[in-house]
Amino acid sequence: MENTSFTYNLMLTIDQISQITGIRKSTLRYWEKSFDDFLKPARTHSNRREYTIEDLDRIKAIQRLLEQEHLTALGVRVRLQELFSSPGEGDWSQSQGQGRPEEPVALRGGAGLVRPVGGKGFARRE
Questions:
Q1: Are 52 and 10 in contact (CB under 8 A)?
Q2: Which domain holds residue 124?
């Protein structure tokens, strides 16, 4: 029982997260900026990043969404909102400053998949 509570209080460095996930440290820093609503590691007094087990779960989710489901950054943000937000938490449109697109999950490549067009809206590829 005590071991479980210990793991929830465990803090990991960016190097440890990189070794566990196989994601480069520069990519983790980029994701921290790109998905700042979902990934905010704590900082030490010397400004080093400290990740929680919850942060590790979110990083693994981002990795899966990008690499296996082939989502764009917008699609990842929408899916993270669905996966990690509590009911009644802030509205997606408020945090993004725009209305939610009708087809929010933009996929890269492939025929017949939704993709962003010129930064405005979505269009179906034929």
A1: yes
A2: 70-84+98-126
Q: Residue 83: what pLDDT? A: 86
Q: What is the pTM of this model?
A: 0.63
Provide mean pLDDT across the span 62-69: 94
Mean pLDDT of 111-115: 46
> Residue 10 belongs to a domain with what CATH number?
1.10.1660.10
Which residues touch 56 (CB under 8 Å, ≥6 apart)?
A: 12, 17, 20, 21
Can you spell out the DSSP letters for 18-87? HHHH---HHHHHHHHHHTTTT---EE-TT--EEB-HHHHHHHHHHHHHHHTS-B-HHHHHHHHHHHHPPT
Domain total in the chain = 2
Helices 25-34 and 53-67, axial angle in degrees (round to 10): 90
Domain match, 75 and 43 both = no
Q: With cut-offs at 50, 70 and 90, classify the pLDDT of residue 94.
A: very low
